[in-house]
Amino acid sequence: MDAQTNEHYGDAGSQSYDAIVSRLAQQDNVPWYKKPNLRLLYLIMLPTCIGVEMTSGFDSSMLNGLQAVTSWLDFYNHPRSALLGLMSAMYNLGAIGALPFVASVTDNLGRRYSILFGSTVMIFGGLLQGAAQNFAMFLTARFILGSGTVFALVAASSLVGGAITAAGVTLGTFAIPNNWGWRIPSFLQVVPSLLQVSFIWFLPESPRWLIAKGRGAEAHAILVKYHAEGDENSEFVKAEYTQIQKTLEVELKHTEMSWREVLSTPGMRKRFIIGSFLGLFTQWSGNGLIAMFLACTISILIVFTAWTVASEEYERTQSKASSQAVLALIFLYSPAYNMGFNALTYTFLVELFPFHVRAKGITIFQWWNKAAGFVNQFVNPIGINNAGWKYYIIFCIWLVFEVAFVYFMFPETSKRTLEELTFLYEGDHRQEAVRRIGEEIQHKQRHGDEDARDSDSVEDSDSWRGHGSTTHLLADSE
């Protein structure tokens, strides 16, 4: 790794470690689907990483559907008003109750076991709801379901799949004349969690968590398998591992793993504010009324304002054109919302919060998100009932605030590794990390073993190429 590698890397002391890793990753000529190990990883992520959000989406859509199932209404004596709101809100209340324990479980047990624990709790809650014999048992089951979901949300993804599935299942059981018309959808809530419990054993642990726990050899083996397709001499993996290791050393040197750290510096306080408002935005963007953040918020504002105007027109004139406009705008709202708040929320949170407070940062987001959802369940029906279309104006004003907040407060995180983003607001710490990692890379260049020095490890550089934007996906999939 002498002449050739020095030419490949350049002078590590004169350029940032970020540039080294980024340059190695950009020399990518092989798409991910042609890499067997990386392709397998993505396939495993499908059942393990979307299962919890499928359960969450299934739950909210199913409860809406059950209100049209005669057997459910009869069994629970046609709940209305506050009782119906309580049934809906118990899921979020359970999540809020569990949130104080999420960060410690995630940081101590690891990402995989946190998902496993949360999924197991949700399975129990789903079975209890399906077997409920009275109102109290049904409420308890929903509380347990909500408490389990926040533990597993570390690696969760999209709500859309679960909501669509629940709507179809509830519609399919609508005509069943007995209690199985509502028990079947309740029992089926456990299916996504069963997928997680079944496939979680094939999903590797977060390399960052392993390194932070002193298990560097395991982390290196994972990076070699999935980022270099088994090539232990991969220059990319060497640079990436060094980047992660040294960044964590600097990060943990200047911080402590406690809740005080979340508000300890101006940069952390800014992250706290962004994470908190993001939690509110995901619930208070009008989505509580029906079951690239700047573009997303602007799109939502336009669609929702038009929706409000069309609703006013329909209430005033009862015209067919205005009713069709309302329906069209309701459908347009979903893609406007999903392109940002469903697709990017957790990716952005992982990039926003450094490793040592990442679980706590996502917990903060979840607290505001679930609290806002809890309020939605009670306030929105009352507001719509009393104010009609005028209630929508509140959300139009709030969406104007969202656009301004996103524009001025949200940092751009695209095309940057998690290590580059670790000290997003802490320039002095970042400079120390750059220096230490540059020194480590130079040290490895000078004192690497014979295999690493062999020129074949440079000539076979195609073996590590092809990581591109997936560089940090496995490195910390929370």
Count of helical regions: 25
CA distance, first residue to last residue: 34 Å
| Gyration radius, rounded | 25 Å
Structural class: mainly alpha
Order of helices and strands: HHHHHHHHHHHHHHHHHHHHHHHHH
> How many strands, what sense, and barrel or not for the largest sheet?
none
Specify the overall morphology.
globular
Give the overall average pLDDT: 76
* Percentage of residues assigned to helices: over 70%
What oligomeric arrangement do these chains adopt?
A: single chain
| Unreliable stretches | 1-15, 155-164, 449-478
Question: What is the number of strand segments?
Answer: 0
Strand residue content: under 5%
Task: Describe the protein in words.
By secondary structure, the chain is mainly α. It is built from 25 helices and no strands. It has helices spanning 3-9, 17-26, 36-49, 51-66, 70-75, 81-109, 111-130, 135-152, 160-173, 180-188, 190-199, 207-212, 216-227, 235-253, 266-281, 293-317, 320-342, 345-352, 355-387, 392-409, 418-422, 427-447, 450-453, 456-459, 471-475. Helix 16 (293-317) packs antiparallel against helix 17. It is globular and about 75 Å long. Residues 1-15, 155-164 and 449-478 have low confidence and may be disordered.
